[in-house]
Known about the structure:
5 helices, two-stranded parallel ribbon, 12% strand, alpha+beta
Amino acid sequence: MLSGSLVRKLCRAKQKPRRIAVTAYELDSAMIPALEQAYVQCEVECLRAGIEFRAEVANTDFIEASLPLIRGDLFSAPQAPFNAAILNPPYRKSKATRQHACPMGFRTECSK
């Protein structure tokens, strides 16, 4: 888990952050319990290092969830800004439809 590796690295850094907040997006619901358990370990490690830790695991598509934030939709819920992002593309070919693979607002980047 890439975010766990970053948390461990930050816990060992000379200049530690005061807090770490992780927002993880995972489509595969079978992976959610393992992620949550990993974040419990991250919390323990952060506690030892004197760092406040919070993790949220969203069982949703990251691209769809981030569109309102990127587009600045007037009625979207306010989101705290991110200061780092770790993106890990899927390892198997997505069975997404064309509409899902290229959500509105990303046509240029997704189209052939």
